[in-house]
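The data layer described in this paper is built around a simple, fixed record for each protein. Because each token names a local backbone shape, the row as a whole describes the fold. We quote a single record here, exactly as it is kept in our systems:

***
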Amino acid sequence: MQDDVTTQWKAFFAAWRETIGDQPVTVDDLIQRIIAPESMTENMLPDCLAVPREKGLSSLKRSLGRYLSHLTGRIFEGYKLMDAGKHTYHRVRMWKLAPQEHEHNETHTKVEDFEYVEV
């Protein structure tokens, strides 16, 4: 049985895969292409990002970047969240979802609970 946090992040990463695929993106790209469009339903956005979203764009960017940092290396539905280096022009962190080969080892989908951090 999965917890709500894991289920929420799985929905977010599924929307990411569907919209962006495995190409590297910045947090700003994610917000513009996944979170900002009207097609993004509330159940695709993890609860931990609801308050920062209400506070404004810069708060949402910082919070999403921090959560992605904490989730780096985790595998969600066969895709691993990876640090994709820095954007050469903007010098901000980039992220990507890389498809993983099926291994005999159990994949990691459990996400520990995060507390909202005031930004």
